[in-house]
Amino acid sequence: MGHRRAIHGALRLVPLSTIGFAEQEPSDTVPAVPNHAPVDRRIWLNGQFVPWHEATVHVLSHSLQRGSLVFDYTGVHQTVRGPGIFRLDVHVARLLHSCQLMGLPLAYGQAEIEAAIIETVRANPGSRAVKASAFYASVEVDVVPLDRRVSLAIAAYDPQADILAHLPGPPRARPRTVRLWLEKKTHQRREDIVSPQAKVSANYASGMMAKSLALKAGFDEVLFVNEDDQLAEGPTTNLFVVDATGRVRTPPEQRVLRGVTRLSVIELAHSDGIAVDEADIAPHELTTAREVFLTGTTAGVLPVESVDGRPVGETCPGPVATRLGDRLRLTLTGEAPGFEHWLTYVQPQ
User: 3-27+40-166 architecture in CATH?
Assistant: First the structure.
């Protein structure tokens, strides 16, 4: 054991013997800290690489205690030209916009963050995802931090091999189609509390609670309504509905997180001659929909087979979800003509 003394953006272990505390036996009421998984990766932290297990913050840091951490997440995909980062510029722009909405004075700009992400992916071969996090590392006592320095951490890793494989319990299989639960009580991302466009950790607490209950009830995913009781989004996904007339609709971007996969699917649909309308969708329209599908960085295009136990449409996946899912997969591997610029390749050509 050791006493953790915080430095900006990282931690340094100080032996207990040097500060006059005796090491204590573990208490029955405090779970033992599990051994670190053997993850051999490096995290970019404020301009320097540190080992995976040293990229930590104090338990009393503002980012942890107040939920003020802002982040963005995208995929790293294998292509014939090597690893490619999906829509890097759009993701970094969204990170900066989230920082602006939450009042985090991040010192890095668009070009600097993009370069740092590319450098981090190069330094971590075999990565499948990259996450950039902006946060207050300082220990604070108030909701407004006195130390306004914002740390930036960038992690490039394989979610399955580096994280999921080391977690306790059986792995949760990712379904190809989902059974959706419509949450009727909890409203997601209310504009009058925190902007729906802010990708900040505090915005995910309601999603954690609602999805946990949905999983226990035998569902795969949860869908929220907004404060006007119109359909909104999932905890980490956006919603698309093919209505009874064949029209494809998605909730207006002003009322949901502006998902990059959502934006990409809309653009791919338009290129294929499929019109997508951004319009309010009432919950009862799910009962007559031809198709319902979700989109997200991890989900891709994810067809919904049922809502509250009621089947959606005649077949699942439906033709629209299948078509757009195929187009997206080709785009992620650099094989979709006209959309190669969506990938930023990390290996010099």
Answer: 2-Layer Sandwich (3.30)
Instruction: Please give the structure tokens belonging to residue 290.
Output: 């031809």
Residue ranges of the chain assigned to CATH 3.20.10.10: 178-332
Where in the chain is CATH 3.30.470.10? Answer: 3-27+40-166
Instruction: Give the CA distances from residue 133 to residues 73, 137, 213, 309, in Å, rounded to whole numbers and listed in that order.
Output: 9, 11, 28, 37
Q: Is the dihedral of CA 126, 63, 295, 252 positive or negative?
A: negative
Measured CA to CA in angstroms, residue 320 lies from 269, 290, 292, 305, 339 at distances of 9, 10, 9, 14, 19
Cis peptide before 251 (omega within 30 of 0): no
pTM beyond 0.85, yes or no: yes
Phi, psi of 286 (to 5 degrees): -65, -30
Coil, helix or strand at residue 58: coil
What would be the CATH architecture of the domain defined by 178-332? Alpha-Beta Barrel (3.20)
Distances (CA, A) of 168 to 35, 36, 171, 214: 12, 13, 8, 21
Per-residue pLDDT of the chain (349 residues; tens, 9 = 90+): 444 434 344 444 444 334 343 444 444 444 544 555 689 999 999 999 999 999 999 999 999 999 999 999 999 999 999 999 999 999 999 999 999 999 999 999 999 999 999 999 999 999 999 999 999 999 999 999 999 999 999 999 999 999 998 888 887 778 899 999 999 877 766 776 778 889 999 989 889 999 999 999 999 999 999 888 999 999 999 999 999 899 999 999 888 999 999 999 999 999 999 999 999 999 999 999 999 999 999 999 999 999 999 999 999 999 999 999 999 999 999 999 999 999 999 987 6
In 3D, which of 134, 135, 114, 125 has the Cα closest to residue 156? Answer: 125
Q: What whole-number distance in Å separates Cα of residue 154 and Cα of residue 131?
A: 6
172/53 Cα distance (integer angstroms): 25
